[in-house]
Amino acid sequence: MGDxxxxxxxxxxxxxxxxxxxxxxxxxxxxxxxxxxxxDEKSPEWSKYLGLIKKFVIxxxxxxxxxxxxxxxxxxxxxxxxxxxxxxxVSGVVNKVFNQxxxxxxxxxxxxxLMFVEIEKGEVVxxxxxxxxxxxxxxxxxxxxxxxxxxxxxxxxxxxxxxxxIKVLPKLFESRExxxxxxxxxxxxxxxxxxxxxxxxxxxxxxxxxxxxxEEEWVKLxxxxxxxxxxxxSQQEMKAKFEQQQAAGGDAEGGGDxxxxxxxxxxxxxxLEAVEILSKLPKDFYDKIEAKKWQExxxxxxxxxxxVKNPKLEAGDYADLVKALKKVVGxxxxxxxxxxxxxxxxxxxxxxxxxxxxxxxxxxxxxxxKFKEKKPQxxxxxxxxxxxxxxxxxxxxxxxxxxxxMDNKNPTIKQQTSLFIARSFRHCTPSTLPKSLLKPFCxxxxxxxxxxxxxxxxxAFEALATALKVAGEKAVNPFxxxxxxxxxxxxKECAEKVELASGGKAGGAADxxxxxxxxxxxxxxxxxxxxxxxxxxxxxxxPLKKPPAAKVGGPPxxxxxxxxxxxxxxxxxxKKGAEVxxxxxxxxxxxxxxxxxxxxxxxxCIQQLDSSNWKERLACMEEFQKAVELMDKTEMPCQxxxxxxxxxxxxxxxxFQVMQIKLHIVALVSQKxxxxxxxxxxxxxxxxxxxxxxxxxxxxxxxxxxxxEACQLPWTAEQVMxxxxxxxxxxxxxxxxxxxxxxxxxxxxxxLNVKAFISNVKTALAATNPAVRTSAITLLGxxxxxVGPSLRMFFEDEKPALLSQIDAEFEKMQGQTPPAPTRxxxxxxVGSGDDGEEGDDQEEAGNDVVDLLPRADISDKxxxxxxxxxxxxxxxxxxxxxxxxxxxxxxxxxxxxxxxELAPALKSRLNDSNKILVQQTLSILQQLATAIGPNIxxxxxxxxxxxxxxxxxSKSNVRAxxxxxxxxxxxxxxMKEWLEGEDLSEELKKENPFLRQELxxxxxxxxxxxxxxxxxxxxxxxxxYSCLEDRNGDVRKxxxxxxxxxxxxxxxEKMAKATxxxxxxxxxxxxxxxxxxxANMPAKPxxxxxxxxxxxxxxxxxxxxxxxxxxxxxASSVDTKTDIKKTKAGGTATKTKGIQGKKVPSKPNxxxxxxxxxxxxxxxxGGKEQRMKDxxxxxxxxxxxxxxxxEYIEQLKTQMSSCVAKWLQDEMFHSDFQHxxxxxxxxxxHLEIEKDGVISCxxxxxxxxxxxxxxxxxxxxxxxxxxxxxxxxxLNQEEYHLTENEATSFIPYLVLKVGESKDVIRRDxxxxxNRMCLVYPASKMFTFIMEGTKSKNSxxxxxxxxxxxCLVESYGMNVCQPTPGKAxxxxxxxxxxxxxxxxNAALNTIVTVYNVHGDQVFKLIGNLSExxxxxxxxxxKRSAKRxxxxxxxxxxxxxxxxxxxxxxxxxxxxxxxxxxxxxxxxARNMSGHSEATHTVPREFQLDLDEIENDNGTVRCEMxxxxxxxxxxILEPVLIPEPKxxxxxxxxxxxxxxxxxxxxxVISQVASGDINTSIQALAQIDEVLRxxxxxxxxxxxxxxxxxxxxxxxxxxYNTHMADEKLDKDEIVKLYxxxxxxxxxxxxxxxxxxxxxxxVLKDLMHGLITLMLDSRVEDLEEGQQVIRxxxxxxxxxxxxxxxxxxxxxxxxxxxDSLLATASSPKFSELVMKCLWRMVxxxxxxxxxxxxxxxxxxxxxFMKVFPKEKLKQCKSELTIRTLKTLIHTLCKxxxxxxxxxxxxxxxxxxxxxxxxxxxxxxxxxxxxxSKTDKGTEKGASRIDEKxxxxxxxxxxxxxxxxxxxKENTKxxxxxxxxxxxxxxxxxxxxxxxxxSQFFQSYVERxxxxxxxxxxxxxxxxxxxxxxxxxxxxxxxxxxxxxxSSIGNSNGEEVGPSVYLERxxxxxxxxxxxxxxxxxxPPLTSQxxxxxxxxVASSTDMLHSKLSQLRESREQYQHIDTDSNQTHSSGTTTSxxxxxxxxxxxxxxxxxxxxxx
Length: 2033
Prior knowledge:
mainly alpha; 111 helices; 0% strand
């Protein structure tokens, strides 16, 4: 017992390991109790036993083992860590328990195994049990089988994978042990319960007795589906449901559902082992199959037949075998062999399944042709073969071949093909049988139901019935409209009998309610359907739910309407709608016609038809017209009426008035009556004859259009074209072409025969008459809109001159979308309400256009000689063969997909050893894709996949060529064909790193663009996982990139499940990656938006434009990878983003709103200090990295959790960039409210912002920088100083961003660096920036050097760290940099230092290379500043500046500081304050009052003052004039932070979110309504207007089309916009700032809004439109008259050019112009006539008189004439002096027209004008009347106001005042700002001093350039207008040099050369031709201007006093100031000592 007592004391876990079995037994018992007692499954207690459980199981003592098993079972059931022990425990159970004699042990062992399955470890358990089946001990085998059987019985076949079990089953049946065989039998019965007959094939080879026994047992099994009875831990919900149903005694429905899913899950084919048969073919097979004796051929085929009996064949290259079998089927004379070969093909197709798909296209045509055989056994074999082959491919792929055979004359072939179609349809679903397929099949079958052979008719009926059953009546009915009732009833009768492969469900539903199955099924089927098919369904399922389905039994009219509605603009599909209406009418004799006509026309009318008196004929025609107008459609005998019109004189009528009415009557008859092609034939000839007539041409065209509407455009156009070109009249030909161009736009492109047109157009292009050629080219332009670039191919052989004209026309059309059809059947689509169908049809239209092009059949050119050439041993001959192929394809241009033996020949060349030939083959395949078009998809499997193989080539150029080829193919085929089957997964399986990385890269690019993918994509997943662990880094990276896109289609669950087969280590790794990818998983692209599908005629890709415009122009950007790809897909990126964004907060919405009300930053006392301590003590990671790793992000997240609101933190660390944008917007909002909170978390905020610097998304970066600017302004205001910790963890990352490629970002970063100097010592900043100059990024080096220069200029040399010498040496190194900008920056910086420090710089720099030194000396010479001046200024300026600034500050503080109501005002106040005190932190400023009162207790060390000779200060010229600063009190606040706040608010105006936009508009409105604040908007007007019309465009394109949006919201937004604009345009000074480009876009937006019928339909729509009317009037009256007039002219020009523009639009623009013309007498003197004349010139150049006359309305030409006449009337002959801006006056008729008008007016009045006044005031007559004086002064002030002519204007004003001393200029100054007035006075004073010779004056007028820009009214326009001239050409560098020179002189940098300077105007005259720049360019230039000016003013020292010395006289006060300063400085120094 002593021993016992020892082990009794041990803890349980040690007892369990004790060597005494009793101790172990006791341990197991106690462990069992313990395990049952522990409640918490995650208790640490469990981990103690992890390593022991295996020992529990394999205990050597049988008694102890039993207890051990019980304890182990309890452990597995309760411990969360149990799963880790699965492998070892189950292995122990199998080997050490199942062989035990005790039944209890075995029972417990089985329970443990099943428990492991329950805790989700089924795969491991199964693996161990299957290993156990190889054990030699039969007991173990039996127990393993039993365990497997019980697992399957309880958990079901979804959890227990059957494939590996079935694989070993036959082997178990062969066991010698009866017990094993019996257990195997039970297992087979259990498996049969789950998968039924799928088990038969794998067991077909077992002993027949056993099979028979099994069969008997199988029969006894219940037929109901088995149900899972035991559930995994993750299936607890199912378990509860199951138990509940069990209790209720009902059928377990939930289980039932699962069962349903489980039953079809296992396919017998999947359970089979694939057999390799190619190597087993007889060696002489290919010889034998060609043998002459049929017996030998039979032997060969029998050998194959035997091999293909294997139910599953291994993939391989079967091309040769298929080719041989195809030859036998097609050409063998022995029908028995044909049947045998067909059986072999059927066997191959069944054994290979999808892998046979690539050969299907070759074999099917042969089999179909062979159906001509009558022998039943041959027909049956062929049927089996073609049915088996059909299952390996899709109907889409075979459609071409099937349809080709449908026209065969042999009735048997027709019958069998129809039957095959019927059988094929049964395997289809509504999604795999789209309308695009149904249409051609139905058309072909409809011909067959009228066939003479009854068997053909029956087969056709069966096929149509099957289609009806599968696709539903709604889809098929439109194609059956011409079928008579008897036949229709028969089709429906047959449809009821049809049984579908899927069990007839779809059909039944389709019969009851057609709309449901389509709508409901689409999403389900989308997985299997192709990209295009599903598009249709997804689109369809939306709208169909809304209207109740049209009942089939309803009146037939409805059906017809639907048909017409469904047509859309669907290419040739357009015919079907019209065919419904097409009337066939026999030709009537003239007598019958006269009879019919006399019944409806007055008798007098008929008598006078051929009267010789034209007046009688005219009266007759008028009566005729009245009669037709009053006639009813049903009574109108169209043919009779038109025959009467054609009666003598008919179309030879000589009187034009009679003829016009005659033509009008033709139009009326064809519009009102039922007009047939027979009637049309009678009149067309006459119409074409008159189309070129000057007086009757328009009427003829109208009649033709009406006929086209009645008889369809395609038919009419073909007739008209052939008639026009059969006659010689060129005028008729050109007008016919013009009519056709217009008609195509009106009717759409439906069904036009491009081929016929092309031959006619070629004839026209060769015509001698230029008008015919021009019309032909115009027609080509219109065709190009629909056909696209492929059209050019047909004209490549034209003469180069002609070709260049065609190209120019095409270029004009580039990017334009075809207009929506307004006539013909197409126009009904839009109104039909059947949006889904319409969208689908339009998509088809794109393909259809390509189908319309004539395709050549090149199969006969692919001769056997050519094929053998391509396969020759000599590479040169192979190359020749390939060259030949290339030239064949080139010649044919468009070819049919039938390319004979070319495909295998090219395929073999892809493996050529000669890489050059491989590349050549790839380029041929690329050509082939373009030539064959979408039908190339037939060749994807046999050729396409081989191209993918080449991606594994070792040469990068070959890989690149391969990728280009693949992309060319996918462009034509879409992705569906490529992803179907296992071909791609086979490629990925190959362990070739190149192949893998290229293929994965390609998939990553393509997958995000697809909305659905075939389920076969799943086959690639296992290989994708192996790529994730590939040895090659690139492969791993590409696999990681592709992972989210796989997940996007397959779902996380499915992908996670697929990791089950990986090794444990790999599995964990892959699962982690999956989790990561899940966070980045993009949303699937949304279906194309309706607004897009409606406007875009053909190419779906063009939707981008519509969706793109919805982007927020400032905040949002499409920079992330996924977005780029999304846009590619359909440009619907914005939409998906929106959806993604909205998904997150949808559920906990209410809660969140409550949460969000509190502060966002929580103040934790001492939190920041603690964080710093932790970082110093290395308790946390120091914030220092090259790219942020996950641990840094996690650390920051943890630190933030205590002091940042939870919801904000979620936004900040979200994986989607849009959430970061939201977070930043919130932070901006709370910045002012929570200053203390922000400061307490500042270190964390700055760290988070550094993470944003590493994002690739520009919009986030822009927002972050905007926030930083506001943040540092606030910190400066709060007098906060950055701590070292904050600075070091932020500044280095900010400096990185100074090297960004985008200009805007660089400027923002520089601005932030400037502001930081206010809260952090500049000397310390210097070190960080100096570090930045060592970067590899040249932009960063250059910007850092410039920044260093600014620091030195602002703070002097003391800023240089560690010493000026070292710093300068560092900078000087960069003079030798290889990058030019860096060199320049380094030189400029050192020049700046030289200007501050003088020649001492050279000593400090030390030795420089000769080249560098010479560059530096040269640069210093060029710099005009003198060092001593700079020195003086450095000491002198600071005290002066502070005085002036503080005075200014006081003014500001007294002003608006009391009113803190609006945000903008706060910002303005704040900025006023910051500018005023300028450098608030004391250590950086020279605030003398403070320092004097300080008595030596300085809070931080003062930088030592540089000793300078103070005598220099007395040098008078150099004293800056402090007065300038005080002139404009608003200047500071204008250019500081208000600007950025306004920018921010304006950026929100264009937001996609309506509420954000409304809030922003409200803020701006508040500012605009208060007069004292409104001028803050100055300088932002263009930017604001751009944002506004962007919002208008967004509403028009996106919001109005969004049915989910409440329209009241939209009305509210419209009201805000219009209200704002009206407020803005009431303030004339602001309204005049709007530039022409922006006004043009604004007017465009407003007029579009006025014409938007959707707005009219809204409740308050009329009110909105009235407001817009009012606003338009305001804009016209208040804007700068030049700009608005220019804008309207350009807008009119654009609207007339744009084919899509409505005439109503142009009309409204013209009305605006009329209003402007009425205003001209008052405004003429304020208008820059030169510019207006240039605009009129351009207009007349684009629209010469002839072209204008062609316009339907004469309004345009009248408007233009009125404008020119009015200008001439007001200006007289002087108007001719205003043509200065026009380079080549001969380009338009303007000058000639003006001369004509002048001559006319002179003839009437005699010349009274005096031309001598053009040079301004100096030559004005003394007796000039008052009005004229006003004109002259207005002209002068206009010059002063313009940037270029300001000097000239001042000089002229001075001369004028001298000449007329009594002239009163007060009225002109009265309306201008205070600043402008003082500017004029000062200018006049300076001129006076200059003229009277009181000393040399610097050229600057005392205003720094920045101030000039902001004060001169027209300056806002200068940036954009001077960038390029009016043609948009770039301006040469010389112009910029001149401008630079002028600026330098203005700034006093180049005084010496001042006299030689030519007048400013001459230099700038060219570039300043005002281009109406696009408004976005304007915005960018505007912003950059604002930013520059802001930055300049943010510099500590940068204010106008410092930048330029500008005064000349020293007032006594300033002299006394200097003495005062000297004394104060001395006092300070002495007190310091």
